[in-house]
Design brief:
Distance between the termini: 30 Å
Number of domains: 1
CATH topology: Rossmann fold
Strand content: 25-35%
CATH class: Alpha Beta
Order of helices and strands: EEEHEEHEHHHEHEHEE
CATH superfamily: P-loop containing nucleotide triphosphate hydrolases
């Protein structure tokens, strides 16, 4: 589902800083992997490269059978809308829309039929146990519930790949445990491939496979206690 070969990414500054160098990764369809690593090592950059938000300086990235290199900005935007779901540390839930309308946003952007949209929103909210909060406003929800809304929104359009960037970083340990369990279960139920980047060994433990990102690339790793 994700194939990364020999990717290099640097950013301009006072001197050019190489963040990722000669990185390769294969993620199977339906696999849920976690990537750990110290701050600034390039974990979020890796997600941005998979999503086509950043372009590599060298190497090849293929996601869901799509080679990202030839795509222009418009094609990359459509690719993300159709194939990618995002879950961020900051929930990015719109405060002036209720839960159902927040979750429906990816389907609205894709121009999906209104009746089908409502059915799918209800279905995915059931999968994160928020079907009783469909018409609640974000201000009425806890942090853990807001992140579950974000998970539902990431899955509602049936993406091929879900990218989660520190999704438990703003939550207390109890809420974090609930959210990461629901993320894993919802991803599996929807048949997605998922890449989670996290500092949390507890969150990483939910993954099928855990990798450590270091300066010299990705390495197999087991979460520490």
């Amino acid at each position: 589902m994700i194939s990364i070969t020999g990717v290099r990414k640097s950013f301009a500054g006072a001197s050019r800083r190489v963040v990722i160098d000669d990185l390769s990764l294969e993620v199977a369809a339906g696999e849920f992997i976690a990537v750990r690593g110290e701050s600034g090592i390039g974990k979020s950059t890796l997600l941005n490269l998979i999503a086509g938000l950043d372009r590599p300086d060298a190497g090849r990235i293929v996601v869901a059978g799509v080679d990202l290199a030839p795509l222009d900005d418009d094609a990359l935007t459509l690719f993300r809308r159709e194939r990618i779901g995002f879950v961020f540390q900051a929930f990015h839930v719109l405060p002036y829309l209720d839960v159902a309308r927040n979750v429906a946003l990816p389907l609205v952007l894709l121009g999906r039929d209104e009746t089908a949209t409502g059915d799918r929103v209800a279905q995915v909210l059931r999968s994160v146990r928020l079907d009783d909060r469909m018409h609640s406003m974000p201000r009425e929800l806890s942090g853990g519930e807001l992140q579950r809304v974000a998970i539902a929104r990431a899955l509602v359009h049936r993406p091929s790949v879900v990218l989660a960037d520190e999704p438990t970083g703003n939550l207390d340990p109890e809420s974090a445990a609930v959210v990461i369990e629901m993320l894993r279960d919802a991803v599996k139920q929807n048949g997605c491939t998922a890449v989670l980047v996290t500092h949390s060994s507890a969150a990483a433990a939910a993954a099928d496979r855990v990798l450590q990102l270091r300066r010299d690339g990705l390495h197999p790793d087991s979460p520490s206690p």
